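Q: What would this complex look like in 3D?
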Amino acid sequence: MKKIFYFVVFWLASTSCIKNADVEIPQSEAELVIASFVGAGEDTVQLKLTWSAPVYNSSVDNMESEPNALVKIYNGSDEFLMTYDTQKQAYIAVGTNFEAGDKADVSVTYQDLQLTASCIVPQIPQFTFEYLGRKEQNLYGYTEYFDRFKLTNLTAADNNYYRIALLFYYHVAYDPNDRFVNYGYSNSGSFFNLKQNESVEVEYYIYADDYYVLDSISQHIIYSDYNYFQYHKGLENYYGDDFFVEPTIIYDNVSGGIGIFGSYQLFKDFTSIPATKP
Amino acid sequence: MKALIIYLMLMVLSFSLLAQNKKITISGYVKEKGSEELLIGVNIYLEGTQIGTVSNTYGFYSLTIPAQKANIIFSFVGYKSENLPITEQSQSMVHHVHLDPNLELSEVKIYGEKEESISDKAEMGVLRVPVKQIREIPALLGEKDVFKVLQLMPGVRSGSEASSGLYVRGGGPDQNLIILDDAPVYNAMHLFGFFSVFNGDAIKSIELFKGGFPARYGGRLSSVVDMNLKDGNKQKFGGEGSIGLISSRLLLEGPILKNKASFIISARRTYLDLLTMPIVAAIDDGGKAGYYFYDLNMKVNYEISEKDKIYLSGYFGRDKFYSSYKDYQYEDDYALFWENATSTLRWNHQFSNKLFSNTSFIFSNYQFVVNIKENNKSTDDFFHLRYKSGVRDFGVKNDYSWIPNTKHYVRAGFMVTNHLFTPSAVVLEDASQSQEVKVQDLNSVETAVYAEDEWHIIPKLKINGGIRLSNFNHKEKSYFGLEPRLLASFMLSERMSVKASYAKMNQYIHLLTSTGIGLPTDLWVPATDRIGPQHSQQISIGLARDFQNPSFSASVEGYYKDMDNIITYKEGASFLMIDEPDASQEFHYEDAVTVGNGYSYGAEFLVQRKYGLLTGWIGYTLSYTRYQFDAINNGKEFFPRHDRRHDISVVAIYKIKENINLSAVWVYGTGDAITLAQSQYTAFTHNPIGTDNINTYYDNFSSQYVNQYGDKNSFRMAAYHRLDLGVQFTKKTKWGGSRMIEVSLYNAYNRMNPFFYFAGYDEYTHQTILKQVTLFPMIPSFSYYLKF
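A: Here is my prediction, written as structure tokens for the whole assembly.
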């Protein structure tokens, strides 16, 4: 269908008139873009600072990091100067030690540009994360395997923003030292806003052929603020420019520029999973 | 409830008061002289008074009046008026009226006062365009299109350049109930929306309700387009045909039993595929490819007795893309088509000279089908796929009209419809395995009962009050909706009235659309336990004024409409099942959509002249529409693409001589609201890192390039405007028929209206620039019509 549609569009376009648009385009300048996520109880905060490139009527196509900015982060009581790490291409502050409920502020100064953003580190949530077992699915002669999980929120709040991030560790069957890790993918997505006692069940495809052996699954549950959730949810949905697809407006909470400054609580590995080959 | 009881008590009281004088009832059918075609909406009134009625959808009328010396006038746009004198001695009678459509040029100037009148009608937001006028308005490539004429009316706009989609008062294209002889038509578009499926030759009447909905209509939020097919000439055989640039049409009609039964059949087909066939064959040896659409309307009717009539009508239309390839080894066939089929069996029964009923049995089917056949003759390997989606309705509808006196016009009825939605049905077969069939059907039942009364409380005040109770059942979920409707019209003077209306509407089915331009992949789906029905409430207030010498009407209406539970795809989501027709998962559309609400308000001005040497209208709409979805635009309100601040249309048809018509259309509209990328940047995702220290390339961040759009639909396309011109030359033939030559010019001043924008590259500045595609620059066309 898509091919036929594009054919029709091509046909119409080729028999129609193409010209430069005679319309006022919102003139966008290159802007600084922030990406930083504050983890409760983590010693270090990193901040990526890059440039945006206007799409139309601009010769700017540099979206690289900006290493020469003055970047500061505040945890309510102390101010930390973030220094640029050329290897990580990020600004880093050590010893920040944000805790639940702390307000975090960041400021970026570059020449006459001033960017600011803030967020509040979320409280420690109450939830359960269960392993529901392995599912087999036969499709046109092939058997596929999925590991199923259930996340239940017990926190009493109107909005509870969760992210499920699973890392699947494999080794190659004929060489146990040849190991690799994959971020798991679920058809249901990874980001969920749950009410109290609300659950979500997710299933993850796992490799199940003679070549790969599943060793373990590292589980991460992230309980985040709205900024972190909305931004990542947008990226998860992002599809680019496609005629058929609703464009995704990526959330941002930075004034004076673009980007995201969010916070989270991270919880790891709390359920036991049989790491055997199906 | 209390208001309803008081209303009913007052109704009974008024009936008893009226019963005290001697009354006579004149009833019958109004027909066209010469063809016996039943005429809808004919004004029947006592000369010099506001007392009167109109003929209903089946041409039936009933007028109960005091026995006194008076003159009853039967008048209708484009026809010579008739009168019926009565006296004190007159008795109740059945009186069938035949109106003469053959007006001389001199008479054109005379008639048309009462026909134009809108101030004394208890209705608002109703648009009627005489079919004759539709045929006189210039059209793209000469293809006369009912919907494109409706789009020229205030409050109604198209989706995009040359699209036949209707957006009414801020509502989406899914919120329009399009009915043809009582049967709903689910996809009213040919060729991705460039043409509507309705062939104007066979249409008898068109009404569009955009507000002030009477209780007899329901099931959609924004509008009702009610169309009726012609019945067919009961006196003599005849027909008409035309040859245009892309299609030809033929209509035949005539009696089956003279004055008792008749038929009409009308067909249209495009022939681009036939013209391009040799070219395709030359380019691709062994290959065939093309596109065509056709449609077919037919109707037969039979007058069983004075009081009973039956009608059987049907519509079938199909669009098809096809391509095939054949050589010594391979044989491939690809076909993609979508088709509508409707059928209605109607029985009119006249219980008395005041009570009329219609019972309709309705069938409607829409399906979108993809067929793929690939055969390798040397290896006997093959792959066959058939994908189908659609909706099928079976329904029954029973309506009663009771006209006890000139103060009341009561309507009541019920309908039951079974909807069978098929979001996806896949049959897959190849050489390596047996046939695989996956079908998902969703069965639902929709019912409604209604009652309404058009009540002339006092000579200056009319109301149309009603109530509709609807119910929708899908699986174990049941929804009920109570829909009060009220419209009041008060005459400020003899020719000016103020009107106000309120309507609540429920819509139990949703349209999943990726693009909003009416692609055949758009899917109708039912309200479920997870996604409820859509609701709307609309209030409107307006002034209507009729003018004399020359006679024309003018109206201004303001409205406010809110819409709840409307759906759209989530950001990043689409539904192209055809790309993965073998998906193993059952389709749950609820996962792909987000629910939100919207509101629209605006003002509409219309000056219209339906009759005379110079006819046409001037319409202007000022409107604002905003939508809000939690999962779109980060929860912030936005303008939907079809939000249009200013919309102007000027339509003029001038009968310069008995046989020459000049016509012109000028339209202007604010540009569409679209989402345009402003910049690109690197978006970083937070990555939690595992405990096992392998694959050290995993950082705390991963990145992707994304577009920065600003707010959704925050960019406006360039304004749309164009002028169309046409001239028609008609000549009577020696054998009693007529022929017409039409020359028209679409987009006469060659305005380059943008159809869509895209990012292009400028070789001189080496920059990305915004480019536009214009679909239709100035396009002349020529058509030849023959009537016999």
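A: To summarize the key features: Chain A touches chain B through 81 residues (CB under 8 Å). The radius of gyration of chain A is 23 Å.
Q: Very helpful, thank you.
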